[in-house]
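Cross-check.
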Amino acid sequence: QVQLVESGGGLVQAGGSLRLSCAASGGTFSRYVIGWFRRAPGKEREFVAGISWKGGATYYSDSVEGRFTISRDNAKNMVYLQMNSLKPEDTAVYYCAADLVRLGNHPDYDYWGQGTQVTVSS
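Predicted model, tokenized:
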């Protein structure tokens, strides 16, 4: 079983940047694809970005394409989400999730972290 812990959230002004981290433990990290999701107040959970087992393939939602970058370091069991040009509508709790099989935007990831709050002020 994989445990995921997100960090790096906080309060930032519009146009600023944050880098979220997701630390994994308890499993062979390179066997899992990773997704970042977010949930804004009053809204459903939304896919943000995903990365394949070795990082060769990445996927982004239209709303973050060109502003966010997902990456992973399998030697450190870490996944990162670099968020640039942040907008107030990016305000949400951000979650990382791991899945053995299926990459990308789907709700059935095997393991989820507890989330980290990102707040973007205007």
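The chain is about 0% helix and 50% strand. The longest strand covers residues 18-25. Passed to J.P. for a second look.
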